[in-house]
Specification:
This protein is α/β, with parallel strands linked by helices and 529 residues long. It has four domains: 44 residues, no CATH class; 281 residues, TIM Barrel (Alpha-Beta Barrel), CATH 3.20.20; 44 residues, no CATH class; 34 residues, no CATH class. Helices cover 39% and strands 14% of the residues. The strands form five sheets. An eight-stranded parallel β-barrel has the order 4-5-8-9-13-14-15-16, surrounded by seven helices. A three-stranded antiparallel beta sheet has the order 10-12-11, covered by helices on one side. The longest helix is centred in the C-terminal third of the chain and has 23 residues. The protein is globular, with a radius of gyration of 24 Å.
């Protein structure tokens, strides 16, 4: 049976819609009857007068976006297997094997020197407005939760107050602020702040600066992400800033130094410039050289993040990470996005998460079977809730240590921030006000945090951080409940056998057993005893 997987020509992401929403051609997404005289509400129509602007999700700067495409197999095509027998990691005693006793702590790195309170982190949000405007909540919330946060690409290059001499950064405002917000709220050595770099960041010496001047221990090389196969992009609304970034070597469209372009911008013909990063050119030689440079500069841990590229690139990422003793490899499946990735690219490019993560397991297992070094693995691509986290950890067990999430934590921080604003304005929505009108009443984690931090420190917390911390609290309890149901009381005991494929197709792609074949040997022994 043929199934349409993509939604095309109209989306809330591009602020477009079909005139005949109930009658649309599956192949093109066009209205079945396209009428002369229509003002052009669909993506084709809007492109007729705004052109390339319609490539990107809108409105810029206040939205996060993710693909609407329905993949043939995703994590919902697996179910978690529970059992009524025994316990792993704790005594099989009903008074001891309770879900609050589940240990979610993970350690990784070449010396196991990195420790997280829970098995997830935010794998890289950089120079987009949505990241910058919510960084306070993301950094403080992540630090309080004892988990990781990665400062993504282009933060220094986009900072108009950064001081750059002879092509190298010597001082910053934004990067310093981001690192400090996290470090000032880090407790007991849990979590990590990571500084990522693309080709522009590398040329500017961003990671060396972060190591030497800001005391950052973890740095990450970036090959890509699940949202796009080009360099990062943002929109710029101010001509002077566009010209500054052009001078710093970024690709700016249209050219902000062209007199005709300047005149058109000033006359209102267009309102935004596009800033694009270059794409990297990966070779083993350059990879090995860069890893050595970072270690020589003082990096204690070196990570790699790769995206939804073709299988050969994933194989390179796994092999290079093994050969050069990378501490963490993050693999991000298609469909995600936190900023301004091209909308059609986000939907139609790359290897989807379950497919990519299944390949990751196979490649990792091959190296492990030969006794080769393997880094800790993190999987990313649309994770938001505890059941998805469990499935991601199980699919790539025992190699995976973490799940990467970005959009969901950003959403939690944004909601917390918005609640704080409504409190300040004495305009708390009825939906929220039913819980109370203060931080203590609205945020369910407030009393415990106040006790832990003390009144003075607690009162300084932004509500964005409370939103993220409270969302993480929900995930930790939810994950503990699922793990206890599977009788797994520590992260190391999760296995691929803890999930089952609901369709033969999902089983074929992942290598996870089809649900009707789970426990076949055990069943036979039980019934024959």
């Amino acid at each position: 049976m043929s199934v349409t997987l993509s939604k095309i020509n109209a989306s809330a992401a591009t602020l477009t819609k079909n005139r005949t929403e109930g009658s649309v051609v599956p192949a093109s997404g066009m209205c079945a009857t396209c009428v002369d005289g229509c003002i052009g509400m669909c993506e084709i129509g809007k492109s007729a007068y705004r052109g390339h602007e319609v490539i990107y999700p809108q409105p810029f700067g206040v939205v996060t976006t993710a693909a609407e495409k329905t993949y043939p197999i995703d994590y919902s095509h697996f179910n978690i297997m529970g059992t009524a027998v025994g316990a792993h990691g704790i005594e099989a005693d009903s008074d001891k094997a309770i879900f609050p006793a589940v240990d979610l702590e993970v350690t990784f790195g070449h010396d196991n020197g990195i420790k997280f309170c829970c098995p997830w982190g935010i794998p890289g949000i950089g120079s987009t407005n949505i990241a910058k405007n919510n960084w306070e909540g993301l950094a403080i919330g992540s630090a309080l939760a004892g988990t990781g946060l990665t400062i993504g690409e282009n933060v220094v290059g986009m900072d108009p107050e950064a001081v750059i001499k002879n092509g190298r950064v010597v001082d910053t405002v934004d990067l310093k602020r981001r690192v400090k917000l996290y470090k000032d709220h880090q407790h007991d050595g849990y979590g990590a702040i990571v500084v990522q770099a693309n080709i522009e960041d590398t040329r500017l010496g961003v990671q060396e600066y972060a190591i030497e001047k800001l005391g950052v221990e973890c740095v990450e090389l970036k090959w890509g992400q699940g949202a796009k196969d080009i360099g990062g992009e943002v929109k710029i609304r101010e001509l002077p800033k566009a010209q500054l970034l052009y001078e710093r070597g970024y690709v700016i469209l249209p050219n902000p130094t062209d007199p005709d372009v300047i005149r058109a911008f000033e006359q209102g013909a267009f309102k935004e410039f596009e800033r694009h990063s270059r794409v990297g050119m990966v070779t083993e030689e350059s990879f090995a050289k860069r890893v050595e440079e970072l270690r020589s500069a003082g990096a204690k841990y070196v990570f790699l993040k790769t995206g939804a590229y073709r299988p050969a690139d994933l194989a390179r990422a796994v092999l290079f990470s093994s050969r050069y003793k990378i501490d963490l490899l993050t693999v991000d499946g298609a469909g995600g996005g936190t900023g301004m990735s091209p909308w059609r690219m986000m939907n139609e490019w790359g290897v989807p998460p379950v497919y990519l993560h299944s390949l990751l397991y196979e490649y990792s297992r091959r190296l492990a079977d030969k006794g080769e070094y393997l880094p800790a693995l993190a999987v990313a691509g649309g994770f938001a809730f505890e059941d998805q986290i469990f499935k991601g950890l199980a699919l790539c067990a025992p190699f995976v240590k973490l799940v990467g999430m970005a959009r969901a934590p950003i959403a939690a921080a944004m909601v917390g921030k918005t609640i704080g604003r409504t409190m300040d304005e004495n305009q708390i929505p009825v939906y929220i006000e039913r819980f109370g009108n203060s931080k203590n009443e609205i945020f369910v984690t407030a009393s415990a945090l106040r006790k832990e931090l003390g009144d003075e420190e607690f009162e300084k917390l932004p509500t964005g951080a409370l939103g993220l911390y409270t969302y993480y609290e929900r995930l930790t309890q939810g994950l503990r409940q699922l793990m206890a149901g599977s009788r797994k009381f520590a992260m190391e005991y999760i296995t691929r056998d803890d999930i089952a494929a609901l369709t033969p197709e999902a089983a074929q792609v992942s290598g996870i057993r089809y649900i009707m074949e789970v426990d076949q040997g055990k069943v036979e022994r039980i019934l024959s005893s």
